[in-house]
Amino acid sequence: MTVDTIAPPSAKHRMPIPDYVPAPLVRDIDIYDLDGIEEGVHEAWKKVQQPDTPPLVWTPFTGGHWIATRGTLIDEIYRSPDRFSSRVIWVPREAGEAYDMVPTKMDPPEHTPYRKAIDKGLNLAQIRKVESDVRAVAIDLIEGFAAQGHCDFARDFANIFPVKVFLALAGLPMEDAAGLNALAKEMTRPSGNTPEEQGRSLREANAGFFAYVAPIIAQRRGGTGTDLITQMVNSEINGAPMPEDKMLGLVSLLLLGGLDTVVNFLSFMMIYLARHPETVEEMIADPMKLQRGVEEMFRRFAVVSDARYVVEDMEYYGTQLRAGDLILLPTALHGLDDSQHDDPMKVDLSRRNVAHSTFAQGPHRCAGMHLARMEVLVMLQEWLARIPHFALEEGAAPVYHAGIVSAVENIPLVWKV
């Protein structure tokens, strides 16, 4: 069963409410099937964040877990691995326990040398070296349909541009993208209507990634190539060669991160811009405002909702937590928190003190953030240079999917040639 055919709420698997969870903190929230999602993923998450919503709520869906509803908590939990561990970062728990990629499921100090291995190829200096190549990919794609006066943005651009860039950095063929994308979707939006079914789906997808990368790792160990995979698998961990099982997890994580997040972020962003031509005009009139406004875009359109594992019994923001509880961190709710941002649903290119957790925080802050920022800036610059005025086709109905990484498809854009 796919996310598209997920069971209605009445048939969802509900967990009993633990004795220590007060009834006023219980909310029926399913990360994979948000109420009101037909209006948009971010709009649906924002409905969770009402003025009287407690900072922590409990849902009986997806195995039963807490949800942090305010930016302050989301930021703080990410930065506190001593209290909130990464040993289980997916919900339901069965999916999180099946997830076997590193270093995202590690805590410091074990996590640190693996993160350094990733940063070798994704640090800001390295990313600046490939900007002209990234720009060439964007230009080639946009000019391929600009004269047509229309495109399906998700299909014709967002699903190709960051994937093509990333596979080139990893030294992998573009023809592998379809199979890898299918695995990525099962990782971030695992199919099934019970925690056990979702756990099986994720375990199979995780195994699929490992099977794909194993021969590539074997080929590139000991190599001198400059691609991301060669750099990582030949990194030392605490003065010794990286263990093979950790190589599988590390390279798989690299591909998962590069294939699903920026793809969906771009699509959410372009739906908004197609509906708000005044924001597009601001970008065109002031290139510096466009450049500074990229961070505002990341605030507004966060797509990741991962979790943390409570290390020990504690009281947190007046709520009793038990060791082993999971807390979901919907990054969208940090950027959309009206206690931190005025009119948070609006993209304000002049906004100051933009606060968000779109790239997470603390030791697990996204290693690919420099690449993501550059991809978004380059894409906007080259798109607006060729297609400055565009809109959603009349009657367009984007299809939204919620999950560990939110997604959207069916984005028909039109413009005058």
Shape descriptor reads: globular
Assembly state: single chain
- Strand order in the largest sheet: 1-2-10-7-3
Tell me the domain tally: 1
**Percent strand:** 5-15%
Largest sheet: 5 strands, mixed
The CATH topology comes to Cytochrome p450
Please identify which CATH superfamily we are dealing with.
Cytochrome P450
User: Poorly predicted ranges (pLDDT <50, ≥5 residues)?
Assistant: 1-10
Average of per-residue pLDDT values: 93
Describe what you observe in this structure.
It is a single chain. This protein has 417 residues and is α+β, with helices and mostly antiparallel strands. It has one domain: Cytochrome p450 (Orthogonal Bundle). It is built from 16 helices and 14 strands. The chain has helices at residues 41-48, 71-78, 93-98, 111-122, 124-129, 131-145, 153-158, 161-170, 177-188, 195-220, 228-233, 244-275, 277-285, 287-300, 331-335, 369-386; strands spanning 56-59, 65-68, 84-85, 150-152, 236-237, 240-241, 305-310, 314-316, 319-321, 326-330, 391-392, 399-401, 407-409, 412-414. The strands form five sheets. A five-stranded mixed beta sheet has the order 1-2-10-7-3. It has a three-stranded antiparallel beta sheet with strand order 4-14-11. A hairpin with a 2-residue loop joins β5 (236-237) and β6. α6 runs parallel beside α16 (369-386), α10 crosses α12 and α14 (287-300) crosses α16 (369-386). The radius of gyration is 21 Å and the shape is globular. The chain starts with 40 loop residues before the first helix and ends with a strand. The relative contact order is 0.18. Residues 1-10 have low confidence and may be disordered.
